[in-house]
Design a protein that fits this description.
195 residues; mainly alpha; single chain; 2 domains; GIY-YIG endonuclease
């Protein structure tokens, strides 16, 4: 369930050590905190060090109050002033909600990132990992279509004129997919694209 409001992360061993935060989706935000802590890259160095020393089980998460998106910052500031949290980097509430980069900043960032490769290029999963992923996804269909829906879509698409450019792009897409998967071209594709 999506809850907007103010949350608290508290140490069980040292209850005076807390972190106050606000989020539009508190459960998602908590998952982000945990992910960053597990990867040893949390924004709060104090919280990261505490996590590294005492472990995940020491941290207790709770929702302090639910509130509307527009009231998040002033409500968070109230709790920051009241609790004076140990783990927070700043005594002032702030977030990037509604923040927009200037055109100059966008250009600078674009130039900085040009030429960088994605982290997963050349990354190969082991056979064991592939099998695990395959087993986990078996029987899962995110968008199941019944026969009536398939027939309706098929009827709608039949006879629609396609430009030569579209046909070329489709052919190239199928070719790339076939090469990527290492599969020979099917009879259907040979007939359709004449190769």
């Amino acid at each position: 369930m999506k809850i907007s409001g103010i949350y608290k992360i508290e140490s069980k061993i040292k209850p005076e050590r807390i972190y106050i935060g606000s989020a539009i989706n508190i459960s998602h935000r908590w998952n982000c905190h945990l992910s960053d802590l597990r990867k040893n890259k949390h924004g709060s160095m104090k919280l990261q060090r505490h996590f590294n020393k005492y472990g995940e089980t020491d941290l207790q998460f709770s929702v302090l109050v639910g509130c509307e998106k527009e009231d998040l910052l002033k409500t968070e500031q109230y709790f920051l002033d009241s609790y004076k949290p140990y783990f927070n980097n700043s005594p002032t509430a702030g977030n990037t909600l509604g923040f927009k980069f200037s055109e100059e900043s966008k250009k600078r960032l674009s130039e900085k990132l040009k030429g960088r490769k994605a982290w997963n290029i050349g990354f190969i999963l082991s056979e064991e990992t592939r099998k695990k992923i395959s087993e986990a996804k078996k029987g899962i269909c995110t968008n199941p279509m019944n026969d009536a829906m398939k027939l309706k879509i098929s009827k709608k698409l039949k006879g629609l004129p396609q430009s030569e450019d579209t046909k070329r792009k489709m052919k190239e897409g199928w070719e790339r997919r076939r090469l990527r998967l290492g599969k020979p071209k099917s009879k259907y594709l040979k007939l359709k694209y004449g190769t």
